[in-house]
Specification:
The structure holds 2 protein chains of 2 kinds. Chain A is an alpha/beta fold. Chain A folds into 2 domains: about 130 residues, 3-Layer(aba) Sandwich (abc type-2 transporter like fold), CATH 3.40.1710; about 200 residues, no CATH class. Chain A is about 60% helix and about 5% strand. In chain A, helix 1 packs across helix 10 and helix 8 runs parallel beside helix 11. Chain A is elongated, with a radius of gyration of 29 Å. Chain A starts with a helix and ends in a 6-residue tail after the last helix. Chain B is an alpha/beta fold. In chain B, about 30% of the residues lie in helices and about 30% in strands. In chain B, the strands form 3 sheets. Chain B has a 6-stranded mixed sheet, sandwiched between helices. In chain B, strands 2-1-4-5 form a 4-stranded antiparallel sheet, with helices on one face. Chain B has a 4-stranded antiparallel sheet with strand order 12-13-11-14, with helices on both faces. In chain B, strand 9 and strand 10 form a beta hairpin. In chain B, about 45% of the residues are buried. The chains are: A alpha/beta, B alpha/beta. Chains A and B meet through helix 1 and helix 9 of A and strand 6 and helix 2 of B.
């Protein structure tokens, strides 16, 4: 049996304290604002202008034209020229360039025999088949950079000889739904809702109970008739409001600055977001009953936050992870929320489409709240 | 014998290898101020926490307002008030906000809440500070706020843990006046302290030392028991005389009080003066006088000087 009066008393007290805590109050607005602008502009998986070097061993007008054509793709930017391959490799070691384009001495000869340009009309070579016209060496440690350089492998070169670019008919027709322009930010903005809520919600409530103990207030509270569940509920309700404010900031700015429109209904969006906020808050409360001080609560928050960013599907697709990692990811509320929020914001999914994830979040939240209330003892021993 | 409000039988609390409270027996009658007198670390706070149900006794039991402890202490919490040693209300809330919060936590109906807060602001002289943050109050004001908040639900039994250790004597006087106002209304109090002037104000006291009870009774009773054990020595070079006496087997304690040396003899005797004179026979120039013991003498004898 829960007294609404006592719960309201806790709630009102939390609001009063929050109002006087200027720094926390500022963070509520500034965290989503700054992170959205920063990540929205910064994170981009489509790579352009990779610094590269060119080693032109032939120095003909064709090799010059080829270099310019490659640079025109905007995938790389030639920043250095070397005479030997060894010099180019050293530049890669020093990280001055990420890749080197090596044009062999017999480039003209290779080009005229290239099947890439003339197809089957290429003049037959004496006793040899067509060879690649030039070579790339690249720093393959970053798979995204390597992938971008690889994309140049089948670059059409017909233009070099004013040949019509008769692109071969594709095997498959591909239609990209929801993000046809392939802008990374479209995926990032709804994902950021999950990351920022994970961070702020767990952090605020993680500290909530611990703070009462640290300041000695808990000693007073436990000698009153307050019940653990009343304390827990009274403490999380203000943060539900704060979480919603942050969602409005992120999605509102996402629409204004990055033109990421909300495809789904606002009602569904509100519902799934509330579920996630609730789940994160009760997780924070559980941490708060484990932590002995605010520093420990903060450390635990980070312990949850990192996998929530890296494994939840925010940065890398969930499907690409091995089974074990997926199981761990499934334990995190953020993983379920990433699927749900992207579904609502980008694909106009409704609650029925997202049922299992939504149900999981609800179950997690209720369980967390119960565990926190059970773990909280009105005793000092 | 009047009604017993709180009692403990063999109440013990161990923290690991350390025994904080050792087989404590207490009997607190209704309407008295019961003092727990002892130095820091003597187990006063631990004893209080067990009596309020915050700590579970390792051994023994207690009965507070008819509730047996260990047991379900929740119902007890509506009937007791516990004022902790430090200020445990919210420093970032105002006086009024703190009182409102506590009133609501104690489920006071709206009308009753207004009446109580109004009365408490008046009698605890906090009306002018009602809108100030608790953290910005002076020590005495904060103390009054803590007491007001602790008694907002009119508890029958009040626990006060070193209530005035941190305030000046003037504030302490005022504070105790308020406590006796509450006693007049029928409230029973258990007060822990290490201050003699605070202990003297209690109706009954128990002296605790390293978790054990060394003596209990009313302050006059206890002082009477120490009768015939205190001798004042006057003269020159008291520091040296004091050092000479300190190791003597018949002498329990020596302390310089201004221009006098206060000497406590180890055994109660009608001839305390003679015992001290015997110990000081090399110094005929000193003047000796048997005096009435005070509570500090009782305390020192009880905690250091063997049987009290």
């Amino acid at each position: 049996m829960i007294s609404a009066r006592r719960t309201m008393a806790i709630l009102r007290k939390e609001l009063l304290q929050l109002r006087r805590d200027r720094l926390t109050f500022g963070m509520i607005v500034m965290i989503p604002l700054i992170q959205l602008v920063l990540f929205g502009y910064a994170i981009n998986t489509e790579i352009r202008h990779i610094p590269a070097a060119v080693v032109d061993q032939s120095n003909t007008s064709l090799s010059l034209a080829l270099t310019q054509m490659v640079e025109a793709t905007q995938v790389v930017r030639f920043e250095q020229r070397f005479v030997t391959v060894e010099e180019a490799e050293r530049a890669i070691v020093r990280a001055e360039v990420r890749a080197a384009f090596i044009i062999p001495r017999d480039i003209d000869d290779r080009l005229v025999r290239s099947a890439a340009i003339f197809g089957s009309r290429a003049p037959p070579a004496q006793g040899e088949t067509a060879r690649p016209v030039a070579q790339w060496i690249a720093d393959g440690s970053d798979t995204l950079v390597a992938g971008a350089i690889r994309s140049l492998r089948l670059m059409p070169l017909g233009e070099l000889f004013r040949e019509p670019t008769n692109a071969p008919a594709p095997t498959f027709e591909v239609t990209l739904f929801y993000n046809p322009e392939q802008r990374t930010v479209v995926n990032i903005v709804p994902g950021l809702v999950g990351v920022i809520l994970t961070m702020t919600m767990i952090m605020f409530t993680g500290a909530a109970i611990v703070r009462e103990s640290e300041r000695g207030n808990m000693e007073m509270l436990i000698t009153t008739p307050i019940r653990p569940l009343e304390l827990m509920i009274g403490k999380i309700i203000p943060y539900i409001g704060i979480g919603l404010v942050q969602v409005v900031i992120i999605l509102g700015l996402g629409a204004v600055l990055f033109s990421v429109r909300i495809a789904g209904s606002l009602g569904t969006l509100l519902l799934v977001t509330l579920l996630f906020i609730f789940a994160s808050l009760s997780l924070g409360l559980v941490l708060s009953t484990v932590a002995k001080n605010q520093l420990q609560a903060m450390q635990m928050t980070i312990f949850i936050l990192l996998p929530s960013i890296l494994l939840s599907g925010f940065m890398f697709p969930y499907e690409g992870m091995p089974r074990g990692a997926q199981l761990i990811a499934d334990l995190l509320p953020a993983t379920h929320f990433m699927r749900v929020i992207r579904g609502v914001v980008l694909r106009d999914a409704d609650v029925a489409d997202l049922g299992p994830d939504a149900a999981w979040l609800l179950g997690f939240a209720v369980l967390g709240l119960i565990v926190a209330a059970l773990r909280f003892r009105k005793r000092l021993d | 014998m009047s009604e017993i409000v709180a009692s403990a039988v063999g109440m013990t609390r161990r923290f690991g290898a350390n025994t904080a409270v050792d087989a404590l027996d207490l009997t607190v009658p209704k309407g008295v101020v019961y003092g727990l007198l002892g130095p820091n670390g003597s187990g006063k706070t631990t004893a209080m926490r067990m009596l309020t149900g915050l700590l579970t006794p390792s051994d023994g039991h207690a009965e507070v307002l008819g509730t047996r402890l260990p047991g379900n202490a929740e119902a007890l919490k509506r009937r007791i008030g516990y004022m902790t040693q430090g200020f445990t209300y919210y420093r970032d809330l105002t006086v009024l906000e703190n009182l409102r919060f506590i009133a609501e936590i104690h489920d006071l109906p709206a009308r009753r809440k207004r009446q109580r807060i109004d009365a408490l602001l008046e009698s605890y002289e906090l009306r002018a500070q009602a809108g100030r943050l608790a953290g910005a109050l002076s020590g005495g004001q904060r103390q009054r706020l803590a007491l007001a908040a602790t008694v907002i639900h009119e508890p029958e039994l009040l626990f006060l843990d070193e209530p005035t250790s941190a305030v000046d004597p003037e504030t302490r006087r005022g504070f105790w006046e308020r406590l006796f106002d509450l006693v007049e209304l029928g409230t029973t109090m258990i007060v822990s302290t290490h201050l003699m002037d605070e202990a003297e104000r209690c109706h009954r006291i128990a002296i605790l030392d390293r978790g054990r009870k060394c003596a209990d009774g009313t302050p006059p009773e206890l002082m009477e028991k120490a009768e015939g054990r205190v001798v004042e020595v006057a003269g020159d070079d008291l520091r040296r005389i004091g050092r000479e006496l300190a190791g003597h087997p018949d002498i329990a304690s020596v302390a310089q009080i201004g221009t006098l040396l206060r000497v406590l003899v180890a055994e109660a005797t009608t001839e305390a003066e003679a015992v001290v004179a015997q110990a000081l026979r090399g110094h005929p120039e000193l003047s000796l006088r048997a005096v009435r013991p005070n509570l500090e003498d009782v305390f020192v004898l009880a905690t250091h000087g063997g049987a009290g």
